[in-house]
Amino acid sequence: MTDTTSNTGDTWSVDDSAELYGLNDWGCGYFGINTAGEMTVRAPGMTDGGASLPELIKGIRERGLDMPVLLRIENLLDAQISAVNNGFNRAIEDAGYQGEYRGVFPIKVNQQNQIIEEIAEFGERFNHGLEAGSKAELLIALASLKPGRGYIICNGYKDEEFINLGLGAQKLGYTIFFVVETPAEIPLLIDCSRKSGIRPNIGVRIKLATKVGGHWAETSGDRSIFGLTSNQLVDLVDALKQHDMLDCLRLLHSHLGSQIPNIRDIRASVMEASRYYAELVREGAPMGNLDLGGGLAVDYFGSRSNRVNSMNYSLDEYCADLVEVIMSVLDPLDVPHPHIVTESGRALVAYGSILLFNILDVTRFEPHKLDAVAEFGHEYLGYLSDVLGNLSEERLQECYNDAVYYRDELRELFRRGQLSLRDRSLGEDYFLEIMQQVRRLDPGAEDYQSDSLTLGDYLADIYYGNFSVFQSLPDVWAIDQVFPVMPLHRLGEKPDRNAVLADITCDCDGKIDSFVVNGDIQRVLPLHRMKEDQEYYLGVFLVGAYQETLGDLHNLLGDTHVVSVRLHEDGSFQYVKEVEGDSVGDVLSYVEYDPRDMLKSFRDSAEQGVQEGLITPLERQQLVALFADGMRGYTYFER
Hints:
eight-stranded parallel barrel
């Protein structure tokens, strides 16, 4: 772990902060810092530097909403939909490709009503559709899109009710594709079509042999869960021919997973999928659509590499490569170019959502005033005192190792009952003072390591944030996802502390200890020293994909407030929508408690206390009022 604030001069600029937190690498041009040292967000077409996030927070607080808040910037979702569609349209025009692009958004990535409404609205000019993987998601798609204005791709398991609803919607003019995921779906789809007299648009998902890197590698290759093998695909073709329905086969679907970091994997999968497509055309199927699934990545820390949380390609390269590879396979075979369908979700919605929260408290690992070791104190305390007294630049590593050894020995003595609490406390103080002195003498000593911990780990502060990892950032806990995190103000000041972030759940996993710093992943985040009576705000960026959908009620911390903002070209902004987060009563009802019954039970207990003389009737009234207020309160910390 290196010194994360390497600028050793007396000056610090907002440009230094932008470089430190990688803002220009992962921000995609949407985020910046103004001259006041405040984080800004801007949309394409804005003529100034953007809207100040601290100013947005001020407006949120004035409207009665406490932190934490999920802030949605409508313009960024609009901009990303445009970027993906325009990227493919440019690539198609440049290559002379004869098909069109048909994007669909996978509802599972973010099912929130406001998000789907905006995708339907902003995507209408591109005929951008939706992907549904369940009956509930199909209902959302049918209620959100207008007939004939975008594909609805039906993936996942489909029962008779699901299929009949889709077939009926076809008669209204919806363009619906039923993607066969398993062989068991084939006879059901044929039977529903026969009974209804409606010929479906059938797609088939093929299980590609191509493997990819990243978190979701297991969703690709021979052992992927969904999709037909080559021999099962032949069976499908034969079954459709037998029932005179081969003309219904109009789409080939393949999906390698989410967040694919390496463009070579994408190219290889598109080549294999295109070969399957050509073979289906040769079998006599009309086809016309090639669905290449999701996988378009988001560069969460801007390294432009094939690391898990990054990507080694641009959006334009992604679009051009898909078009080029399809043409390279189909043109020699004189197969007409299909419409290209992709199911990009993460790239569309990640940028538009920011988790905002305040810091409630800080634990700093610094010694108290050091007392001299008593004459009859334990010898290891004397050894630690000697290490501190003999510190020199020539012996830093040795002194570090000795301090760790003696500290650990003192802890073992305490566990055995052979050391007093005060002597252990004194030993910890000497240890911390040695660590601080080693770091002052050599900033590179942050990387000195003992067992699994470094000196930087020993000294990192813990900043307690008013949020829940499990509710708002579940992928941080579940799959070690890295999101950009940084202060929203004071960015003209040099950060003077290194910290990890803890949430307010009583769970040791409720923390963030991987951060985007200086273009890499670090275990600590540079932050500013807290100021008395002044809030300190942080933001977690690129959180629009999956986090709202996967969040849980750990410690019964519920949904945060959600505020949507529309930015204007002149830099002004408008609060478009406010959705209050869960109250305590709300989350209790989710886990099958009845708040009214709970209030009655507590009221009865309080009355019993009055009868027994434990409290007065007035105290009973105050306690019951507090209980009722608690039910109505926000689940997070309220100032």
